[in-house]
């Protein structure tokens, strides 16, 4: 750890939540608040309404959160989605200069931003602009993303709960698919990183330690592996010939060998967001397009098309109110740890989760530089990928402890 | 109750599961098995693999389920989806004659069929053909459907658990929508009856007794109320103007004033099933089409289109492995009750759930005739509907006790 500054700045603190909400992002909010309690250098603790978007309004949209009762904090911590409101803004230098101005006006000296790699980049720029302008201010990034795509972290808060939802959904849906056999395609969130789609593989365990016979998903397509339409059709045909059914996990971010999203090659008229990304969640298009492909090209033994259905799990994945207990605890912990960095006199930083052991599962937090994580994307490591349509045993070992106990399900 | 036959037929029993699976259909399977235990007239208890489709194969696809251990039965009962496999076949008279032949061949004298109104119709026809042909056989229908559309029942097994999923999903999604405000359209199962879509209204309570301020869903569209595209756009605009966001619950079965499904009027090339019904679940089309409509016609104050997302809950609704405790208990109960009808010498019948009291919630089972329920559809009663885009307080009173305790969620 780099040496901490000796001087403790006196002033207010502000906490913001950014990007897609998660089932445990409020744990991190409450973690920062708890971590700042009794820190005499901090006068008021503000929450930013809708992140930097609310902070930079006139007047600044701030709400005092330092005096909320323990009971109220507990209720907020246990509720999904961003209790303060979130923001999709991706601040550039000019925007960040306005953030610094708003902080000056409200005497905010401690800036905590809970979010993904874009949010850590906001922290980095705000920190640089404040430093360059001579405004003493300390910026801390608190990690959060269901995509699990932050550098330096074993995993990110929010991911284990979303992975728990995905694994549970695939488990129940595989039994559904066995009840009424056909091809079932489920589209999972994850624009660039396949971790969440990989979590579908836990469904094969059906709450136990070993894969259940014939349990889905039978095919898993990740954004890290170039998607080939012909190979996909052949894969589905092979599983269908063998089992009379096929459950498929597809990441919304699958790309062809040229890096072009399959959603884009198969569907017209997709919306783009402020970051220039095409809209992948909150639309059923990719699932429907892949279903159409299977209906047209996969055949039953009698030559007819199989029964094909496509579901897009959508936003339920990220905020389902049954979080992984480990995730809830760690999300609280990273918030507290960030507050601790401030108390210890650090001038900036982000927090990473380190896995200490697998059995029993144990993790720790460490300070990393904002530049270690800002605007970078972590992908599934190669050792987690198996061939063109599956994940490895190493991926399952990595994922299993994170999601908590899943229901034990069976069939005849 | 009509007088029961004095004579008890000796022979085997067979149990089948039909139609879309649910979270608790295996409770009913185990209920019938348990109810037949110690009934000396029954020699073997068979399960039909994939319902009448497996029964009528040569050889008949039957599995003995009467000797499964209590531990195994418990594990099966607590697992979602049809453990025996289900069937989408809709038998006509000729098919039912083959069913009777298969029963004769396996000495099946007690025929239990767990399913919805199509399944009760199968029971009715099989019963008539067996009677007319002089084969002594007794047919019992065990109710099951997430659509809640069976006549004579206060509600149907499977519905409360699906309603629990829908209410939970809307609750979390409304907090998500408040985090990142926009228009969010969620499409819910229910081709003809709006009960499941209506259950979204429970989300407004956020696990408590009174509606939370601003909690969604803000608009609810049922198949029982003719859907008007222009009115829908105006409704969304009005909520958006007021709250800066809007969460919408839409039944997959919404129809225009001429009874034509909106899915059909908005989307091309929909698949039809063996019953001539268009495919509504397992496609994202309706949600995407309604989202496009809102993007084109609803305006923010600055004249731009709002952020719009559409999710189709899909198959997760029916098999999510967190059933309503009341539903699990009642689903087991209707199975046992059907077995009891056989033991008491009834020659046929179906089971209805009667609500005895609301506080505390109490229900009872009663025998009804197969003809009371066969091939009929129950709709939402008029008193459960409020205007063109909501449900009534009576609907919420009806729904609330069924779903069990929901998580208590909050926001700042």
Question: What would your notes on this structure say?
Answer:
The structure is a homodimer. Chain A has about 400 residues and is of the alpha/beta class. In chain A, about 35% of the residues lie in helices and about 20% in strands. Chain A is built from 14 helices and 13 strands. Chain A has helices at about 25-35, 50-55, 70-75, 95-105, 115-130, 160-180, 195-200, 230-245, 260-265, 285-295, 315-320, 325-345, 370-375, 395-400; strands spanning about 10-15, 40-50, 60-65, 110-115, 140-145, 185-190, 220, 245-250, 310, 350-360, 360-370, 385, 390. In chain A, strands 3-2-1-4-5-10-11 form a seven-stranded mixed beta sheet, sandwiched between helices. Chain A has a four-stranded parallel beta sheet with strand order 7-8-6-9, sandwiched between helices. The longest helix of chain A is centred in the middle third of the chain and has 21 residues, at about 160-180. The mean pLDDT of chain A is about 95.
């Amino acid at each position: 750890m780099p040496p901490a500054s000796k001087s403790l700045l006196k002033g207010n603190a502000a906490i913001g939540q950014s990007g897609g909400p998660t089932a445990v992002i409020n744990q991190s909010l409450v973690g920062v608040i708890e971590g700042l309690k009794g820190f005499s250098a901090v006068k008021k603790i503000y929450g930013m309404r809708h992140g930097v978007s609310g902070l930079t309004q006139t007047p600044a949209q701030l709400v005092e959160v330092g005096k909320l009762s323990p009971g109220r904090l507990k209720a907020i911590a246990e509720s999904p989605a961003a209790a303060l409101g979130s923001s999709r803004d991706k601040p550039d230098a000019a925007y960040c200069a306005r953030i610094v101005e708003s902080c000056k006006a409200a005497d905010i000296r401690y800036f905590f931003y809970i979010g993904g790699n874009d949010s850590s980049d906001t922290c980095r720029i705000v920190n640089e602009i404040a430093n360059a302008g001579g405004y003493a201010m300390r910026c801390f990034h608190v990690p959060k993303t269901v995509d699990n795509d932050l550098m330096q972290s074993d995993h990110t808060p929010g991911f284990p709960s979303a992975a728990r939802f995905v694994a549970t959904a695939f488990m129940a849906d595989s039994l559904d698919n066995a009840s009424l056999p056909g091809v079932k395609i489920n589209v999972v969130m994850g624009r660039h990183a396949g971790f969440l789609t990989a979590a579908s593989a836990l469904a094969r365990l059906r709450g136990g330690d070993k894969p259940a016979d014939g349990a889905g998903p039978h095919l898993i397509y990740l954004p890290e592996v170039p998607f080939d339409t012909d190979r996909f059709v052949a894969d589905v045909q092979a599983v269908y010939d063998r089992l009379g059914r096929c459950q498929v996990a597809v990441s919304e971010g699958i790309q062809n060998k040229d890096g072009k999203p399959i959603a884009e090659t198969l569907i017209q008229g997709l919306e783009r967001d402020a970051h220039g990304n095409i809209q992948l969640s909150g639309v059923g298009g990719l699932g429907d397009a892949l279903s159409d492909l299977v209906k047209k090209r996969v055949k039953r033994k009698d030559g007819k098309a199989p029964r094909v259905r496509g579901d897009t799990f959508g936003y339920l994945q990220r905020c389902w109110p049954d979080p992984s207990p480990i995730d809830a605890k760690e999300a609280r912990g990273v918030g507290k740890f960030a507050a601790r960095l401030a108390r210890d006199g650090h001038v900036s930083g982000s927090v990473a989760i380190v896995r200490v052991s697998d059995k029993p599962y144990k993790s720790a937090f460490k300070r990393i530089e904002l530049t270690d994580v800002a605007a970078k994307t972590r992908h599934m490591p190669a050792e987690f990928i198996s061939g063109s349509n599956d994940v490895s045993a190493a991926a399952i070992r990595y994922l299993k402890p994170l999601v908590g106990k899943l229901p034990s399900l069976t069939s005849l």
